[in-house]
Design goal:
Number of domains: 3
Distance between the termini: 36 Å
Bound molecules: uracil
Structural class: alpha+beta
CATH superfamily of the largest domain: Pseudouridine synthase I, catalytic domain, N-terminal subdomain
CATH class of the largest domain: Alpha Beta
Low-confidence stretches: none
CATH topology of the largest domain: Alpha-Beta Plaits
Shape: elongated
CATH architecture of the largest domain: 2-Layer Sandwich
Strand content: 25-35%
Order of helices and strands: EHHEEEHEEEEEHEHEEHEEEH
């Protein structure tokens, strides 16, 4: 059960005082009846977004919420970086949600593809935990042709990136053409894929993530599009 004013304030509909004013104006309706008490206790069931309306619109999905996004090029994953963030692709009200939404790992500004965004802290930690070894698959376009030795170097589990002490875990390379390859990694070190190709004398010109665990970037999501992840999609992450 959740207090109505706290529930709606946590979904970004305003402060608790503003939510109380919405209730007083009859703009919060449950099962067709305007609610009178902003302190009413509401059962937060899965069907609540279809039953509880604010200003005539179904409420946003309460936490826990996980999104699947096709991150476009040119937007950043962190508020600390300059530029437009992935959060700006979501409804404005969602920036005031509590708990807040965070990306599960990051993609560079110049990387596109599958990005998960969640307000579910335990779920986020399950996906990024090094112990979980969730595979992330990237398609890289390279400045120079592959020399044939990269696959063995990446698979060895001995490659040490510049300014790091610990070797990378083994990673799987699948050449797609002279200058294109899929690379599957289980870690998430800073700029990892770009730095791996730099370590073997190449340069990544374009990078796209198309899979996390057993979850593929949905074919119907255009760059910039996102939607709420289904239970099957969340489960697929852990089934690779
Ligand atoms: N590796 C990179 O270099 N960049 C990304 O965005 C993800 C992995």
């Amino acid at each position: 059960m959740a207090r109505l004013d706290r529930l709606l304030a946590n979904l970004g509909y305003g402060s608790r005082r503003e939510v109380t004013a919405l209730v007083a104006r009859g703009q919060v309706v449950l099962d067709g009846r305007p609610l009178k008490d902003s302190g009413a206790k509401i059962a937060v069931t899965a069907d609540l977004p279809t039953r509880l309306l604010v200003a005539g619109q179904p409420i946003d999905p309460p936490a826990p919420l996980t999104l699947v996004m096709h991150k476009p090029l040119g937007v950043v994953c962190s508020h600390r970086e300059a530029g437009r963030t992935v959060y700006e692709l979501l409804p404005q009200r969602w920036r005031a949600r509590e708990p807040g939404l965070s990306t599960i790992g990051r993609l560079d500004k110049d990387t596109s593809g599958l990005l998960l965004i969640t307000d579910d802290g335990p779920f986020l930690h399950r996906v990024i935990s090094p112990k979980a070894m969730i595979a992330k698959r990237y398609a890289a376009t390279l400045a120079r042709p592959l020399n044939g030795g990269e696959g063995a170097t990446f698979a060895a589990g001995t490659l040490v990136l510049e300014n790091e002490a610990d070797p990378l875990a083994p990673a799987a390379l699948e050449p797609l053409s002279e200058t294109q390859a899929r690379l599957t990694i289980t870690e998430g070190r800073y700029h990892q894929v770009r730095r791996m190709f730099a370590a073997v004398g190449n340069h990544v010109e374009a990078l796209h993530r198309d899979r996390i665990g057993g979850l593929d970037l949905p074919a119907d999501l255009e760059p910039g599009d996102w939607r709420i992840a289904t239970a099957d999609e969340l489960a697929a992450i852990f089934t690779a």
